[in-house]
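Final report, results section. Input specification for complex C-07:
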Amino acid sequence: MLPLGASTYLITRRAAVTYVNGLPVRTAPTTFNVVASVQPLNGQDLIRAPEGLRRSDARKAYLYITDEVRTVLAAGVEADLMTVDGVVYEIYHIDPYNVFSPLPHQRAYLQAAQGTDGAQVGP
Amino acid sequence: MSYVPTPLELAVYQWLAPRITGVLIYENQDAPRPATAFSSMLVVDDARVGRPATQVTDTPDGADFVGYGSTLRAVTVRVTSYGRTAYSIIQGLQAQWSLPDSSYQAGLLGLAIYNVTQARRIPQILSQVTEDRWVVELQVYAVREVAAATQALNSIDATVSVTDPS
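Structure output:
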């Protein structure tokens, strides 16, 4: 079953970071496509958003459970990036979503990604 | 955005890294934390002590001088350890900083470590779990030298003008 309004989006998976002489060393990210329905957040979603992330530039995406996107699960790992209409979002939370049964889905929450210099992060 | 440590930070890092159990990183980097036990360092204060000193040296051709300006700095470096082993990491640093070999190694890097503050516990809530953190401050004297070529005067041309006031 395809989620309503689903489309194909690019996921960028950043490789685990290792540290050499106190500085992070990154290797090239990998990319893949997922089918998702991207929607705006509602009020409850905004309340649940981590403090400091309650900005308007956020989305949620319904995906198949088989599309293994990830948020920060362990040290040394960065969350996946999802490109929606040219804007790069970072996945800050994922939970299972089974309303679309019989196929289980997952719901990913996205936040516009920004670097420490305030510029938006690219893949 | 990559973090670019200053020469002073590099020197302190070289001294600290072998004395820290686990990974030592610079603070304020746009990157995820290391996967293993780690500590971070940050130069939180870099103050000049006294007046700058200059040194003038003859160069081989006998005409030019090179002026060296050196400034004694009192530098404070904050070292924070994270996780269950944080306290033992900080204790290990405190046990080592004043050993003769440590002081000698610091001297080779142009540093003189004169104090390490008492360890303080600053636990933080991380993903709904309290993470243990311990912090000390390392107080270091360092000399910053600046060399700039300066042109000495070979001769002085002066026009004498004498006015009779009477």
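The beta strands of chain B are 23-26, 38-58, 65-82, 111-116, 120-121, 124-126, 129-131, 133-150. Chain B has a mean pLDDT of 86. This concludes the modelling results for the funded period.
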